[in-house]
Amino acid sequence: MQTAEQPILGNRKITREWAGVSVTVSSERIVDPVEWVSEHAENLVIVNLGGVTSRMEARLGRGSLYTGAPTLGELSVVPAGERFAGVYQANRVRFADVLFRPGGFSDEQGLASNQHITPFRASLGVVDPFLFGCVVELAKLMEADDGQSDLFGESIAHALKLHMLRLHAANRQVSRPENGAGKVEVAKVQRFVEEHLDEPLTLTRLAGAADVPVHHLIAGFRQVLGTSPARYVLCQRMRRARWLLAHSAMALADVAYSCGLSSQSHLTTTFRKETGLTPAAFRAQFRGLGA
Fold first, then answer.
1. Contact 13, 49 (CB under 8 A)
2. Which keywords are on file for this protein (predicted)?
3. pTM for this model (two decimals)
């Protein structure tokens, strides 16, 4: 039997963090049974993202032994400071470790960042479709290297933290957020976006422009504009890109930078996803209509 320190064949791990939520997606082939022990100062959620598990035996703290092969979407919630140990064997499995940093809930709870955060309730082998969906979307964003994916990731991370506080906190006494930002605050953010569209934009920067908490910003955009801040920023970037492509001879790379996108390839990928056309095809089509 291997120990966790010995090599596991075919390992691949990617880690990325948004708004105090650290996600590590691992793809592993574990030929022989592996013993592991995990104990973190942070709350941890382990999510099965697919694969074939032949053996799993796990124990959380002093609880009863959990056995069986986890299915797609099945997850375990490990409270901060709890010992999680067991034996694992899989032909090929993909899973995510989601760590919630201490102080990472300060905005959602209205607490100072150094205040104690109540641990999550321990759960093994449960299903939470919303949590699973958030982790899947974050996993898709992990290898993207641009400001827009950071903004979407930050939005998902905040939604995930609120969900965990409401459904998985040990005391489940966290109140719902207050009313979101109003029309005046949303208008301030809209002006800020227009003035800084060529820069990286985060939820923290946008909320700071209106002097409101991040979760109020998200709620306010939903109430006033019917969309999320991240989606609004993307739409404004694409709006500027369409105008520049139609009314200037600016090189595509410069169009990308003017819209706050990291590269010409990022512009091409995003523009095609949003419009169904590449930037070059859109420019040619627009000029053809004006001929």
1. no
2. DNA-binding, Transcription, Transcription regulation
3. 0.71
Q: In 129-245, which ranges are E strands?
A: none
pLDDT digits (tens, 9 = 90+) for 223-253: 888 888 998 999 999 999 999 998 899 999 9
Q: Is pLDDT above 90 for 145? A: no
Domain boundary assignment for the chain? 2-149, 183-290
Yes or no: is domain 2-149 CATH 2.60.120.10? yes
| Cα distance between the two ends of the chain | 73
Q: Are 108 and 215 in contact (CB under 8 A)?
A: yes
Per DSSP, the residues of 189-212 read HHHHHHHTTTS---HHHHHHHHT-
Handedness of CA 56, 37, 60, 77 (dihedral sign): negative
Residue 63 to residue 41: CA distance in whole angstroms: 19
Q: Which residues contact 113 (CB under 8 A, 6 or more apart)?
A: 103, 106
Q: Can you tell me the distance from the alpha carbon of 229 to that of 278, in angstroms, rounded to the nearest whole number?
A: 25
Closest to 2 (Cα-Cα) out of 89, 94, 82, 74:
89
> What does the pLDDT read at residue 179?
57
Summarize pLDDT for 176-191 with one digit per residue, the tens: 444 567 888 888 999 9
CB 151 within 8 A of CB 231: no
DSSP code at position 120: B
Q: Cβ-count burial of 291 within 10 angstroms (0-12 exposed, 13-18 middle, 19+ buried)?
A: exposed
CA distance 125 to 271: 40
pLDDT at 257: 95
As a residue count, the chain comes to 291
Do residues 235 and 201 make contact, with C-beta atoms less than 8 angstroms apart?
A: no
Domain spanning 183-290: which superfamily? Homeodomain-like (1.10.10.60)
CB 226, CB 234: distance < 8 Å = no
Residue 237 CA to residue 256 CA, distance in Å, equals 9
